[in-house]
Fold this protein.
Amino acid sequence: MARNTQVTADHNAPAVTQILAKFVATHPSKGWSDEVDLEAHRTFMNWLGCAVGATGHEAADAALAAVQVLQPAAQASVLGRATKVDMASAALLNGITSHTFDFDDTHLKTIIHPAGPVASAILALAEHQNYSGREVIDALVIGIDVACRVGNAMYPDHYDRGWHITGSTGTLGAAAACARLLKLNEQQTAMALGIAASQPIGMREQFGTMTKPFHPGAAARAGLMSALMAQQGFTASPKALEAPRGMMQTVSIKNDWREITHELGERFEISFNSYKPFACGIVIHPSIDACAQLRAKGVRPEQVQRIDLRVHSLVLELTGKKEPVDGLQAKFSVYHGCAAGLTFGFAAEEEFSDHIVTRDDMVALRRKVVATVDDSIDEASADVTATLTDGSKVHVFVEHAIGSLQNPMTQALLEGKFHGLSDPVLGQEQTTALINACWAIGNAANVQSIVQLATPKAP
């Protein structure tokens, strides 16, 4: 029987694979404003703190054990451990830990966590091949721009279909960033993007499991390998992104090509990066913020009879787990987020630990949260009313949560977050030195001092 092979496709798409390759290969070093460069440093530091902080998680133990079965060469460091593995495995492992706590950066327009795939790939490559800090920052800005511009073009259809957009676009961002570090020419860079385009990674079904943080790690590894293969002459379609049966038209009906090409090299997507004060899915943050404000108003858990939460439908679609059984599931429970915000006034990684999530008082308080959909409320907002046992009500509306672009984390808050993650692994003094090294990476001759500071001292 003959097959109907007709597809709805754009046969006149611009040559975005080549356009992006030219941008990656030829855009000048630090070809952006000081504000963009500062955001790159903030992004790198936030990523590194997250990666170091989660290094002792059981997911990191399991992934490292699997990697070591392959007997990898000692080329690059596993952050937060006195262990070295091959470059590709270091990219994988550091990408996993950077996302394990769900505490990493977020490009709010697309919900991409861009640093995990990109920074994990380039730090491993830079450590092994001794690239400068300036080259690393340049590659970070450019790689994130590629990932997020492709994400802009496909979001929300691509995400709504079930793809974890951090992994699928992160593979391209990591490939672009590594191509930049390796100084590949335009043709080689197009091949690196083409190889990466056949490796989109990650499905949303995996949220709440160890495989979710695997996605940015696997994207980092795939992107690094794509660039290394292109350097050696491995080929791919020169239209791998835009062709009717290329990556983008295969995984998304929506493809707004202008999102890739408009102001390319003039507007940088890292400028729109944000950093999480709370260690969970970004759509829970307004609800946590609102409940923390309830606490600041004097409301205590034992006074609460009921909490009415009104949020956009996406919040419950992504984070509607009413009865999370462990910390990973709780990161996708707006109910637990509300309970943590009211009980502690914040929700860092400890507040999503298994022993907190399963505590009787937290379970009881979660069950007092009644969440309803109200699509007149923005995805980034939350409306919370606490009804107290004396019958009184206390109301809080959060339009923009702390950590959003409109209410960003300060440098001091970022450093405090880093200390909270890294101090238990490296100690306060070494963490302070590591933070200072991150702020200065753009002027560093290489990344060796950062890697050394991110390694625990022998007892």
